[in-house]
Amino acid sequence: MSVQSLPRSSRSTTAAPATTTGGPAPLPPRRRRQGSRIGGIALRTPFWVLSGGLAIVFLYPLIWAGVSSFAPLAGTNQTDGWGIGNYITLANYQAGIWTYIGNSLFVSLLTVVLTLVTSLLGGYAFARFRFPGKNVLFLATLAILMVPYASLLIPLYVLLNMIGLSNSLVGVSLVLTMLQLPFSTFLMRVSFEAVPKELDEAAMVDGCSRFSALWRVLIPAVKPGMITVGLFAFLAAWNDFLAPLILINDSDKMTLPLAISNLRGQVQGVVDYGATEAGVVVLALPCVVLFLVLQRHYVRGFLSGAFKG
Amino acid sequence: MSSNAIKTRTAPVRRRSAQQRAEGWRGWLFAAPTAVIVVVLFVVPLLLVFQMSASDWPLLGGNQGLNVPENFTDAVANRFFWNAVGFTLLYTVITTVILLGLALGLALLVQESTRWKGFLRTAILIPSALGLASASLLFYVLYSPIAGPFAGLMNDLGFTFLGTPEGALWSTVFLIVWRYAGFYMLLMLVGLQAIPDEVYEAARIDGASRWQTFRSVTVPLLKPTIAMTMVLCITGSLLAFEQFYILTKGGPDNSTITVVQLIYSVAFQGPNNLGVAAALSVIVLAALVIINIAQIRVFNDKEPK
């Protein structure tokens, strides 16, 4: 179910030849669908203008960011024309861009691993076992969505201080894992429930333990769900701003979004716009690439995430 | 076949207690990581925020004893409190109205599966892959009167995106619309897809015009989707923080301070008072839980029709 193919409903194939719309010539049936029955050429021109304009509005900022990150913008250190100067400024910024990329990767990958392990085991338990307190635990997990993240940050700050995880990237990962739990546990539970029980029962009859049945038979079956969960955990952690802003003090422990937002300085006027733009590209590029490669999983994730209402 | 089914159904009943207890233990074993994270990082902080809201709790120094109801009265008495509440509500109304209308329009526009519309859908969706902080930083440079692409034009017209309270609000709204339109469009598309073809055919046979079909078929049948999208949009907007923290820092003239920004600044930027910040958090929490419940009620009332 990629973005391209998503809205192709059965409607498209059942569209009957229209008799009321007065197009100059009968159009191929694919175009005569419900929704926007664009009839004549006169109606088409505004459509092209409108949709072309929309494409420009949505793509322009991204393209401009990419181009201007190589440009000698006003307010930048770059004086020698077009080139990688903005990236060099960024690389030399404070602890250095590689430290921040490393911190961000550490937080993101740890969050992905923690989220996958918890939701895989949890989803399996919720889908396959009956145990006392199961529904309470599941509802408590979903309740994370009902409670605004921002109102937990103050107590989380104090709590992580108490247990010695303040100013630590592991602490940030734990908080982000908690935030991913409702979505990931829900999605993994649904994924497991979609697999027939007979499959793992057969494996256990053949001598597998519960755990090896999960490992050998079920994990391959729920892989698409795991990819979606992993993708969303990665993006959430890579992009998160609020948790590191509140939990991290040391400048060499900052994650990438935090470091780049600090490039703007505290005093007005001292902003390195070029380096900021280069930073935006470094931040956005992995997201855009992952989006384009994993569109199918992305859409699925959005749809599962939408249940949070 | 049938005897087999009876066997498997009766077997567990006989050995119920022993087998179920073992099953329960194993279930808990698998659910343990989830339980630990939920309890330690969600339930405990949730209880802690209530305790903190009732305690004198400076940023450095920890719990200094009971302080009710002063934390709450101090929170409400903060000179930015009512401004922040008002601004957050205004911002929420504006973004919700624009985003819902635009998302529905875009969904109708790109509903069919032609190659160009597929491209357009992808183009509209790509910004949702960016983090809110990255998108805000990108627009911070884009809106800059020094380095942005509109810098020359802005200087000629004597205009800045972020320099006036109105400009700052609408510039931020534009950023959010750019970032979230695709996400809400996707939800609307799924809702549109769930409407059965037969209804449209019946409307066509009855001779309904396109506008009539939209008004009396599409919109009513899309109501659950619209309601759900609205819940998401309102909840998200009420918690706005990053976009204003990065784009405007609450300015100009403290005109764009949101409620979450107020929590942050009370805790870490100014008074450094975690007790008052916790009281503000409790107020936000209560407001959002009430709003969520109210919205779900409205949503469910419309369901049976």
TrEMBL record, chain A:
Organism from which the protein derives: Herbiconiux flava
Keywords: Cell membrane, Membrane, Sugar transport, Transmembrane, Transmembrane helix, Transport
Name of the protein this chain belongs to: Multiple sugar transport system permease protein
Ranges for region Disordered: 1-33
Membrane topology: Multi-pass membrane protein
Membrane-crossing segments per the record: 41-63, 97-124, 136-158, 170-192, 213-238, 273-294
GO CC terms: plasma membrane
Family of the protein in this entry: Belongs to the binding-protein-dependent transport system permease family.
Cited Pfam families: BPD_transp_1
From TrEMBL, chain B:
GO biological process: transmembrane transport
Spans through the membrane: 25-50, 89-110, 122-147, 167-187, 225-246, 274-294
Gene Ontology terms: cellular component: plasma membrane
UniProt-listed CDD domains: TM_PBP2
Protein's cellular compartments: Cell membrane
ABC transmembrane type-1 domain ranges (all copies): 85-295
Sorted UniProt keywords: Cell membrane, Membrane, Sugar transport, Transmembrane, Transmembrane helix, Transport
Main location: membrane
Keyword check for RNA-binding: no
Entries under Gene3D superfamilies matching the protein: MetI-like
KW Cell membrane (keyword) present: yes
Membrane topology: Multi-pass membrane protein
Domain of life: Bacteria
Entry similarity comment: Belongs to the binding-protein-dependent transport system permease family.
UniProt-recorded name of the protein: Multiple sugar transport system permease protein
Source species of the chain: Herbiconiux flava
